[in-house]
Amino acid sequence: MTDPVPTTCMRCAVGCGLIQRGVDIGYGIDTVRGNANDPVNRGMACSRGISETADPDGEWLTRPMVRRDGELTKTTWDTALFEAQRGLGEAMDRNPDAVAILGSGQQTNEAAYALGKLARGGIGTRYYDANTTLCMASAVTAYYDAFGSDAPPPTYEDISKAETHVVWGANPAVAHPVMCRWITQSAEDGTLIVVDPVRTKTARAADHHVAVDPGGDLDLARAVLARVVETGGVDEAFVDAATTGFDDLELPDSEAAADRAGVPLSTVDRLVETLADDTLIYWGMGVNQSVQGTDTAGALIDLCLATGNLGPGTGPFSLTGQANSMGTRVCSSKGTWPGHHDFDDPEEREVVADAWGVPVERLPDDTGPGPVGIVDAVREGSVEAVYTVATNPVAGMPDATDVADALEDAFLVVQDAFRTETVEHADVVLPAATWGESNGTAINMERTVSRIRPASDLPRGVRTDLNIIQTLGNVLVNDLFDPTAAPAAVFDEFAALTAGTDADCSGISHERLDEELAVRWPASDAETSAGYRYYEGEEPRSSESREEPRSSEGRTASGDGGDAVAPDDWSFPTPSGRARFSDGTGRPLPEPTDEEYPLLLTTAREADGYNTGVRSRESPDDPGTLVARVHPDTLDDHREVIEPNEADDLLVRVASRRGEVIARVTADDAIPSDVVWLPIHHPATNDLTHPATDPRSDEPNLKQCAVRLARPESDTVTPAFERERPPQHP
Ligand SMILES: Nc1nc2c(c(=O)[nH]1)N[C@H]1C(S)=C(S)[C@@H](COP(=O)(O)OP(=O)(O)OC[C@H]3O[C@@H](n4cnc5c(=O)[nH]c(N)nc54)[C@H](O)[C@@H]3O)O[C@H]1N2
Ligand SMILES: Nc1nc2c(c(=O)[nH]1)N[C@H]1C(S)=C(S)[C@@H](COP(=O)(O)OP(=O)(O)OC[C@H]3O[C@@H](n4cnc5c(=O)[nH]c(N)nc54)[C@H](O)[C@@H]3O)O[C@H]1N2
Ligand code: SF4
Ligand SMILES: [Mo]
């Protein structure tokens, strides 16, 4: 084994510090364990984080490939890069917007920053986005709406201080296991409430499971806020001093809204009661992946604002998914310029163009239509060439058959570490290094930057993402990159652009991270590592100084013992300096059930699968059996279409208006009746899902669509010619 190398887990955005050792001979990681010295996790780690880092399944890409006579054929780097340059360059020369680039929350900051520089500054395309828009975009939009900034106020330190933990549309026991342990430990002396239609592992660990109807979240959040107001639970001093928009709120009748959400008013009142204590509201994909994702995330932030839950041990905490989604938000020039600079700000555009050495006119005027809109442009033909890095859109995007068809007709360059469904449609395949082989940084969900370090050499045919992006970038655009720039220098270039912003990383460097392991932004100089609460007074009261649970009065300046938050000391980067209540009114599910498609499909994660499952299956040819979970009553109701196979597995066909899949069906009373639950880790799942998006965030409504069950052997129930393409924004 090689010497121990400290690094960061790239399985989820908790961002645990790990110690890895490379194998003695050849390539690969031998052992991985939690790093006891890392301030983020103090040695804790989860089994998936360890096992998938050390020993992923999946078919590694080890050589570049190009398509010859319809077949992907191994070739040299020179040939692959030449072909990539030819296809992307020809489209770019015709029109920068004829090239689309799709990035990922699974790249290092250095690679993500370089990809953004190539897309926005080198090529100058609007059609650049990342899989983080399938994931975090609604939370990001809601944070900007409320705080004028995408800096989440809470950090992990708040978890042990909170009294109430409300987990809304998320299943951290499966998706963020180490963080979930912190939450359940803290909740031993407090309360854990889980809002989820499904009785998940997290819900089973909760004091109270609120089984909201799928898509009922905005109604429920508004019902809770209406009851907070009715019962005098508003922290008026905080609302008066630090917020705007409260008086303009149009709140529904609480009973009617609770009824629409499928939740009894007594449960709403229980949520209202617990909000009087120090409360953290965490939320995940059950909220974000919806046509009303931004509105619902905004309504959850409103609950915190109205009840003054913004100091220590409290606040709205969006559970970021991929390990470097937060980094993508800060550095990738996707929705903002590096450091959250406003995309439209003329001065900032000058600064960025100048730093990149490109004409400012080349920067696109707007951030583009999101991944679903990009695929629309590919299908319509205005986008001719597509470059994907660390993402698998042919399996991860909604209405995936349509995505595959669209990409099939484009010139497609795929840069991945594994053979994926998207690779199968590529014209050029660029094999990239993955985590144990890469050098750079990542940012976790509480804004902490840490190092990714290689513990293994690279196989000969494989290059790092940064190296590939720099090389391809320079053949497309003369001198865009310094080809000798190491990751540390690329980090410095990115960090300099963030100086003075709310995401200031200018005091962070690889060198500093080598010493300190983890540094949280904003960090404007080499000494600071900041918390960020939009609070400019003395550090707000901490729970240690409090004996009694806080009343809403306790959150005001005149609260208990003089250590309370002084409302006047709050300062938000909004024009008024105040946090803003939201005004989203929501919209119905894009595809409600009906007679023809009477069941609702929902999709989510399992403990031992990761996203589209690329690293947790043998090969794209063998994604394993898709297992659908349905309530026992739903199973009984559909006995006539369920057929056992030779192994006595119960097989059924799940069909939507866009596609159909064969699944093994199991009865599970954790699933509400008339709902079909499918894991996202099988590439077939997204053949069924609906491409409607949230008009504010462009995030797709991946969590609900209408399906029906049919006999596995029956004729195709949704023939291709019948496939309807629904409007994107219903
Ligand atoms: N094991 C594992 N861990 C992962 C990942 C993985 O693939 N596998 N992926 C990582 C990534 S990229 C992400 S984004 C995170 C995601 O982490 P989570 O957000 O926890 O992910 P999901 O399981 O997709 O969805 C969370 C919950 O939303 C619920 N839900 C569905 N519809 C609704 C609804 O209408 N309302 C409400 N309130 N809830 C609803 C589902 O039942 C599910 O329990 O996980 C990260 N960690
Ligand atoms: N129905 C439904 N669909 C969903 C979701 C859902 O809940 N329901 N969730 C959505 C969410 S939250 C997300 S984040 C997306 C994810 O969607 P995708 O990005 O499409 O899926 P992943 O499987 O995470 O693909 C990541 C790819 O990056 C590759 N990779 C890993 N490391 C590296 C590296 O260092 N370099 C390079 N070049 N490649 C690398 C992996 O091999 C893998 O192929 O899926 C979305 N799709
Ligand atoms: S909780 Fe997330 S970051 Fe930590 S070890 Fe598990 S997968 Fe990795
Ligand atoms: Mo995600």
Relevant terms:
binds ligand MGD, Dimethylsulfoxide Reductase, domain 2, 29% helix, alpha/beta, globular, binds molybdenum atom, seven-stranded mixed sheet, 4 domains, 730 residues, binds iron/sulfur cluster, six-stranded mixed barrel, Rossmann fold, N-terminal domain of TfIIb
Mind explaining what this structure looks like?
This protein is an alpha/beta fold. The chain has four domains: 5-54, ADC-like domains (N-terminal domain of TfIIb, Single Sheet), CATH 2.20.25; 65-135 and 327-435 and 464-479, 3-Layer(aba) Sandwich (Rossmann fold), CATH 3.40.50.740; 138-319 and 543-580, Dimethylsulfoxide Reductase, domain 2 (3-Layer(aba) Sandwich), CATH 3.40.228; 599-722, Barwin-like endoglucanases (Beta Barrel), CATH 2.40.40. The protein is built from 23 helices and 27 strands. The chain has a seven-stranded mixed beta sheet, with helices on both faces. A six-stranded mixed barrel has the order 21-26-22-25-24-27. Strands 10-9-8-12-13 form a five-stranded parallel beta sheet. The longest helix is centred in the N-terminal third of the chain and has 18 residues, at 77-94. The relative contact order is 0.16. The model is unreliable at 541-563 and 717-730 (pLDDT under 50). Bound molecules: ligand MGD (2 copies), iron/sulfur cluster and molybdenum atom. One ligand MGD binds at residues 12, 48, 135, 168-172, 174-175, 195-198, 200, 212, 214-215, 217, 284-286, 319, 321-322, 602, 604-605, 607, 609-611, 703.
